[in-house]
Specification:
Length: 224
């Protein structure tokens, strides 16, 4: 009887130990299996991810962006040609003699209108260039002095008396002196101061009718 009871206890102990060993072995096997499967799962995941990235990359490389349009330079505008300027020259339309003839006919053929018109054009610089010069015999009024400065003589000449110097010049239609020169001099030492004085003088110009004109060979005498 005692042997049977002891045998049962030993059988129970062995059964418990067997079950415990099986449980431990299963747990160890499961753990080992998980450790073995984990790298395989990671490798599969990495392979899928790389395949996905490679496919997307190929698609991105294939889909090239559209070319950027280049800025087109605007075509330069051609400058508009300016219309030719119309010029009017009196000489191209009618001669100076024709104008005098027309005015003579309108004024009864006296010729006075033609001469006055000629003098007017001359005073304005018309009639083809330089201002026409008249002699004192052609004038209705000769040039008259308005201002003649005193000659700036050196001290040695101030004491000399009775010296006269004649000058000749052109009086313009504005009363200015041009082309002054010595006509006759009793002493050449006075010539320089005399010419400087006459060139600075101003005059009332000669006139033909009411028109101021330029007068040639105007004479003036300095008496010291």
């Amino acid at each position: 009887m005692k042997k049977k009871i002891a045998f049962k206890k030993v059988g129970k102990s062995l059964g418990s130990a067997f079950r415990s060993g099986v449980t431990v072995a299963f747990a160890v096997a499961l753990t080992i299996g998980l450790f073995l499967l984990l790298p395989l799962i990671q490798e599969l995941n990495a392979s899928d991810t790389s395949r996905f990235d490679s496919d997307n990359l190929s698609k991105i490389q294939l889909d090239e962006p559209p070319p950027v349009p280049e800025d087109e330079e605007p075509e330069p505008e051609e400058p508009e040609e300016a219309p030719p300027e119309e010029s009017f020259e009196l000489g191209d339309q009618i001669s100076f003699d024709d104008l005098n003839s027309i005015l003579d006919g309108q004024l009864g053929g006296s010729g006075a209108g033609g001469r006055d018109f000629e003098a007017l054009l001359s005073s304005l610089g018309g009639g083809g260039g330089e201002e026409e010069l008249f002699s004192t015999a052609d004038l209705d009024q000769a040039p008259l002095p308005k201002f003649i400065p005193n000659p700036n003589l050196p001290p040695a000449l101030l004491k000399r008396k009775g010296v006269s110097v004649d000058v000749v010049f052109t009086c313009t239609s504005t009363g200015r002196v041009q082309d002054a020169r010595i006509l006759q001099s009793q002493d050449a030492a006075f010539n320089s101061a005399t010419l400087a004085s006459i060139r600075k003088s101003t005059w009332e110009p000669g006139r033909r009718g009411d028109t101021a004109v330029s007068t040639r060979n105007c004479k003036f005498t300095y008496t010291y």
